[in-house]
Amino acid sequence: MDLSRRDLLTASALLLARPGAAFSAAPASSVDPAAGAKPIVLCWNENPYGPSPAARAILRSTITEACRYPPDAEIQQLTDTLAKREGTTPDRIVIGTGSGELLCALGLLHGRNGGEIIAAAPTYSELPDYARHVGATLKFVPVDKQLRHDLTAMRAAVSERTRAIYICNPNNPTGTTVAASAIRAFVDSLPEGVTTIVDEAYLDFAEGADIRSAADLIGGGKRVVVLRTFSKIHGMAGARCGYAIARPDTAADIGSARMSSANIFAVRAARASLADHAFLADCRRRILASRARVTTELAHLGLAYAEPQGNFVFFDTGMPLAQFTEFMRARDILVGRPFPPYDTWCRITIGTEPEVDAFLEGLRAFGNRHR
Ligand SMILES: Cc1ncc(COP(=O)(O)O)c(C=O)c1O
Questions:
Q1: pTM reported for the whole predicted model
Q2: pLDDT of 104
Q3: Ligand 1 centroid vs 243 CA: distance in angstroms?
Q4: Calpha distance 109→118 (Å, rounded)
Q5: How far, in Å, CA of 316 to CA of 319, rounded?
Q6: 297-340 residue pLDDT tens
Q7: Are 233 and 144 part of one and the same domain?
Q8: Are residues 332 and 270 part of one domain?
Q9: What's the sign of the alpha-carbon dihedral 270, 275, 281, 282?
Q10: Could you tell me if the CB of 169 is within 6 A of ligand 1?
Q11: Does residue 109 sit in the same domain as residue 251?
């Protein structure tokens, strides 16, 4: 691997120079994150502050209706709300049992009959994994030195058999982003019939002038599908709700390839959460502040990290990952799994402030022991 520690430390220094990176003790929000729970789970990129107060209230009041399927009218209301939010029409919205279900549907639609799908390495593997099961040919293109999607190399990998390209923005596990202008140019350069799938699960945590949704490309009739989820900024991973934005014909195909239908809790809580702007802003502010604390400590310890734009940080522990995960496990802290070929790198989810305190304490102890 030709990624140098210096490359990443330089990036780190630039990041640290960003204004607003300092930690400020966040005022207690009205939510009650699982305070003091053990083990501390920092391995699934969940948002521990959720669900929002509004979503919690509706979840509680819906318990007695768990014997019911969600009424069609309520699914339509959520679809309409999402369409309005995205500045599009309801026929371009598909709701899924998590965005993961929609990624699988897209893997099926584009991967069956030997369809070729291109993705970065490493990236979130739900779509490629599912596509492989249905007979897809997968082409993985390594991320660049800054651990970003290498769009030039991905474009060069396109062949006559290519059906889709998966871009995870920000990318899981590296956390890096692709600029909206670069995605637009990439989409414009593709042959007719190749679909670009942009997974924006973590976009709400990203910062930067040219970092924004690719959803506006869909209105122009391009073959672009954008995926969003309620599992991250909305803190509803357990409720299972996500959606796709796509051309009406593609949206209909995705809808017919789904394997489940939305549950009544997810449908109601998603609508409530979308309206809880104070909660969403509070989550973003707190997670970004904690993320800055983590990167400050990593820089202090001389550990390289990729530019984090999600609710997690991908960093080089400097030794085989198993040593680090074991060290943290002994402290009741669960951290991310291996992402080959980055065998010394760890993905750490931003938890609550006390959870981040515990992680940083562990990180410092680890640094002292291995210095
Ligand atoms: C990049 C990315 N996309 C999609 C998902 C799936 O999210 P969900 O199925 O909970 O909406 C995840 C989950 O971690 C993810 O990291």
A1: 0.91
A2: 98
A3: 11
A4: 14
A5: 8
A6: 999 999 999 999 999 999 999 999 999 999 999 999 999 899 99
A7: yes
A8: no
A9: negative
A10: no
A11: yes
Do 122 and 231 lie in a common domain?
A: yes
Question: 170: cis peptide before it, omega within 30°?
Answer: yes
Ligand 1, closest atom to CA 100?
9
Residue 208: its pLDDT value, please? 94
Domain containing residue 47: 5-51+278-370
The atom number, within ligand 1, closest to the CA of 101 reads: 9
User: Which three-class secondary structure string do you get for 106-169?
Assistant: HHHHHHHHHCEEEEEECCCCHHHHHHHHCCCEEEEEECCCCCCCCHHHHHHCCCCCEEEEEEEC
Kindly state whether residues 224 and 343 are assigned to the same domain: no
Question: Which residue CA neighbors atom 3 of ligand 1 most closely?
Answer: 201
Residues 234 and 117 in one domain: yes
Domain check: are 46 and 63 in the same one? no
Last residue of a domain, one of 225, 246, 275: 275
Q: Which of 198, 229, 337 best tests ligand 1's pocket when mutated (most atoms within 8 Å of CB)?
A: 229
Pocket test for ligand 1, best of 43, 102, 126, 225 (most atoms within 8 A of CB): 126
Q: Which residues of the chain have pLDDT under 70?
A: 1-35, 221, 371
**What are the two backbone dihedrals, phi and then psi, of residue 165, each rounded to the nearest 5 degrees?**
-130, 130
